[in-house]
Design brief:
heterodimer; A: 562 residues; alpha+beta; 5-stranded antiparallel beta sheet; 4-stranded antiparallel beta sheet; 13 helices; 15 strands; 23% helix; globular; B: 488 residues; 10 helices; 23 strands; 20% helix; 22% strand
Amino acid sequence: MNDILTTATENSQPKTYTAMSRLTGPVNAGAPIEPVLDIHDIQGNVIPGFNKPHQYVLCFKMEDARLGKKFLKEILPHISTLEEVLAFRRLYRARKKRLGHKPEEELSATWLNIAFSYECTTRLTSTAATFESEAFRINLEARSPLLGDPISPDNEGSPENWIVGSKDKVPDIFVIIGGDRQDQLAEKVDFVKKQAAKLKLHCIYDEEMNTIERDGVTGLEHFGFKDGISQPGVRGRISNLQGDFLQERYVDENVLPDSLLYGYPGQFLSWPGEFVFGYPGQTLDPLIAGPIKTEGPDWTKNGSFMVFRRYKQDVKLFWKYMLETSGKLAKEDNFTNMSPQKLAAMLVGRWPGGAPFAREQDNDDKALGADKMANNYFRYASDSCPVKMVNGYQDKYPQAKADPIGLTCPMTAHIRKVNTRDTSNDAGGTFASFQQRLLRRGLPYGPPLDNPLDPNSPDPANGNRGLIFLSYHASIENQFEFLRNRWMSNRFTPRSPSGDDIVIGLNGNVGQDSVRKAMVFDNDTKAVGLSTGDQWITPTGGGYFFCPSLSAIEHVLAADTI
Amino acid sequence: MKLKMFDPPGHLPDFVGIPGQLQQWSKAISGWIDGAIQIEQGRLKDFPKAQVQFFNATETDPAGLSLDQDIVWNAFPRTLVLGYGKAKAYPTSEQLFSLTAPRPGLPTAPPFYVDPPGTTMWSDLLYRPLDEYCEFRVERHPDTHKIIRITFTSEPPEYWQALHGDELQDANGNFAYKFTGDKKKMLDLYHQYVSTKVKLGDLECKHEYYYMVTDANGKPVLGPDGKQQKQVVFRKGDYNPYNVWNSTKGIMHLSQPNNFVQAEIQLAADATILRHKNGRAVVQADALVCCSGYGGTSRSSDPTIGASVNDLARLGAWVTIKNPIGLYMHDLNTEGFTKPNGEQIDPKEYFKVLRGDEAGHMIERAVFEVPEKEGFTVSDLKIAGVPITWGGQVAEHINISITGTGVNPRYFNNPMLPCATFCCIDTDVSIALTRVINNGDPIPEGYQRAFLHEQGTFASQASKPTLLQTAAKEVYHEVSGIPRHKRR
């Protein structure tokens, strides 16, 4: 085994962060050579992601393509690149390490990215006609039935009633701005709005998003769960230096195969072509690079498809179900310490604080939930065990046991429905699973609800809260739509015995009244059926967009060719 | 309690009333399982205490907790999608291919059969390139070319050979299981489901079908008489699964040469063998296929069937396939299917189950068509806003399934065997072209070895089951003894 390894001397030292550090992982001679990414050309919210606590979405209708091009020329210097966002992140972490706390007072940034609808790209360049993605071409409203969205016009979730993304409210241009400070964010939003208005870009929708923090847990969504923990690690290097990876690697190089497969422990590395055009995608072997992924026009290189969905969340209704059903289960079935939080954790696959149910079945271990070195490290087909890390980290939390049938973490749990990890699925093996991953960049909108378990809790926002879901990928059909249609809304896949994704799935099948069904096992291995027709999430808008490279914006979309 | 007998696939009723037929079917299934167990026993021969975890439910009744696992996969061939991309996979999926032609999506794989010198017996037979245990036929209007109906089947060919009264082969290719059969009943079913023009003679072999046996390098394998061995596949007068009414003119049952019940049984049995690489359990589905050599790497079915069974085996459970053993369409999910007026379709009206057990998710034959009252065609429907122009667009919303049963976890602590095979990936067409190669065989030109390190395994501190280690330079070999046409 060791004959395939070359121990690089620099790896024997614990990993450290400095602002200029370019060594972000062990260099293993058995590892594949990863491509150097065009860091100055890829927009920064695609990778590595803004990851800002305050963000703002702006959607515009473009009245005049010539003026639209002018707007693009003006906005171009404000578009944040992968290079800039990553450089700030490295600096931030280096300062945090030296200070011993977050350098909020001394460091802040405001980032901006932009994306375009198919209709808009065709008005900016004739070459857009060669886009192959049918989903992108016909846009979200036409694809909505596939996603299980309500279609009855009297349902708020029907495209007819969407706030944005249907009929005459389909945006041409989507702008996202993220910042560390709300005042700086507001300033940038104001700037963009003014520039846009000047050039007859009509703002048809805008919304502020803010991270939620409660009881010391950051990054919550409105149901109260820590979000965004399990993101795929993207392979690729920032420079020609050997260990200069985009995604840091934390597993000691002598731990095989983990060190070749993971960024953070449990975070599988995907080839960048699964998310950004112009790079290799996956093959059967996760260490062998696939063909370069391309899409339609030449200028899609370094670009990515983006899905925007606005989901309203009914927090009271969600917790009402958990309260009532957990009480029933506690009486009628054999569950240890059943509670609303435990039931919700079983259906999400994580406790509100982020601890994976596969590793912790008794309580919401917030330390585990917050610990990036451990909170994503578990498997379903095999036992997990502590691995040696480059930074000397010791994982002392309970480890996950093999659970292929879902006796511990139910197969119906949201995180098992969208990521089968080391188990097989209806599309095949792990290769198939890798091809469905997406980079999620969403954030909540609306104020959080206090005391969600209290049905009489006052709600000044009158239920106006939810998630702005954003995802980036190389295929809308095979990634975002696949997950929603083939896995979340299908009660038999990716594995059975399962159920719908009862938490976030939608059931648009005729005659089923949006009822989602799920199945969990009690301590006696008795299958216990659960179901609800409650509309916990309601789609209220969205759209399909393309997020191009900066060079494509400059030389194609903003070019004076019309 | 032991199972009394194995029932026909999906509880199909046609064997009822044919003297001895139900017992003969059960005996054949039982024999195929026993044959598979025997092969696995051969693999474990170096471990006197090891016992095959795959069991015959009519002969063994393991006590303890019993868990069923529906193993589900997609009906549309992933092989074609990876090989051609979806746009080309759809039309390719509706073509028929000669049994001697290069395999669609797998151009470097050997053809299923080679004609014996001086004959074109296999070249003349056609099959559908649909390798996920579900096949379909699209009927279009002759003038408008709009789709009128799509007929789906998951019925195994063995069922129809049995109904014809043939003698079916065991795992080693010997004719071993004789059926009474009822040719008239079989013909009636063809008349009912395919065409009233079908004649019995159309369905039978006009001559013997055979191939000359060669080794892995293509060299003739000689028999005791010094002549090259001949393996008979169908005898003269036998039922011909590739008959015109199940290929060019219609569809009655599965025709892709890998789509048969024996293959499903052998795959499940093979997958109960635990594998290791450098002492670590091979867990990941794709790596397991490459390591065990039990199926197609590009399929949706084989990796998930194998890995799901292996998951149960690694828990130390007895494992079998739940009765009735067959291949089934589980369901069609019509979310996103809309009529010209934008309304969603009701699958109960559009997807008519003709054979099998719909409530039990054991669908054997179904038709997708627009109810007459609607006045439009399948091509007027849309899926997610895109008109249906190919049968594959519907097929990719169908789940196929079998059910695995695991009994009494932690009963076994069997040894892990080293990998018997390995995979290579075409360096130019790396997404699609992989080949499973026997240990010791050379890597084909233009290919690189996959899973060279230990990706697909996971380190475990939990227990260290016995390993069968190979000496450093010794190459581990397994010989299954299964004739070529019975292999996946």
